Amino acid sequence: MSEHLPVFGSSDVEVLERVRVFQGFFAIDKITLRHRLYEGGWTQPFMRELFVKGRAAGVLLYDPGKDAVVLVEQFRIGMSVTDSQSAWAIELVAGFVEADETPLDMAAREVKEEAGLDISEAQFICEYYNSPGGSDERISLFYAEVDSSTAGGVHGLADENEDIRVLVLSRAEAINAIQQGSINNAMAIIALQWLQIRKLESAV
């Protein structure tokens, strides 16, 4: 086994107690656990709070004919607590995966709800944990090609308080927005950098 791969697995963690201490739009669990040590043996039992979010997925919508991406802009509470930036984030179409659907099913559903577009197929990019030090949120990223000429307007579900503006940016504009700090969330940055690397490699 490569020394760069994890040496431990799920059987090397023992959850002693798990209690739901808060349930609102999101949930928080208090977990008492212990795990194996690299030099042998186990840790003493210790406690951590876990921000419970679950599975999510995002899809990078790309128009190869126009070399443009379709993104969305919406209010985000986590960005509203500072005066130094806007509380409206420029993001990928994304959402939480329901119990009865796959991440790819969710991606297609959210593309229709948030951008008013349809996708027939999507390519898997990667899967990652957004903030594993305190949250269980696991994100699947996909890439799908669309015709951006029909993209625009305001979308979202009113009963979920969604007010989502659709943006069409050239690939160059999107990459510049990352560099300028206008696109400042991990999901969009990872997907757009993946696209940029792919384009640069194909040009060689």
Topology:
Blueprint: E1 13-23, E2 27-35, E3 46-52, E4 55-63, E5 68-75, E6 88-91, E7 93-96, H1 103-115, E8 123-129, E9 138-145, E10 154-155, E11 164-170, H2 171-180, H3 186-203
Task: Give a quick rundown of the structure.
With about 200 residues, this protein is an alpha+beta fold. It has helices spanning about 105-115, 170-180, 185-204, and strands at about 15-25, 25-35, 45-50, 55-65, 70-75, 90, 95, 125-130, 140-145, 155, 165-170.
Write out key terms for the chains shown.
204 residues; alpha+beta; Nucleoside Triphosphate Pyrophosphohydrolase; globular
The structure class reads alpha+beta
Number of domain modules: 2
Task: Please state the overall shape, judged from the principal axes of the Cα atoms.
Answer: globular
> Kindly state the mean pLDDT as a whole number?
92
Question: What's the level 1 CATH class of the largest domain?
Answer: Alpha Beta
Q: Specify the CATH homologous superfamily of the largest domain.
A: Nucleoside Triphosphate Pyrophosphohydrolase
Continuous helix count: 3
Low-confidence stretches: none
Percent helix: 10-25%
Largest sheet: 8 strands, mixed
Total strands: the figure is: 11
Q: What is the name of the CATH architecture of the largest domain?
A: Alpha-Beta Complex
Rg computed from alpha carbons, rounded to a whole number of angstroms: 20 Å
Strand content: 35-45%
Q: Using the coordinates shown, work out and report the CATH topology of the largest domain.
A: Nucleoside Triphosphate Pyrophosphohydrolase
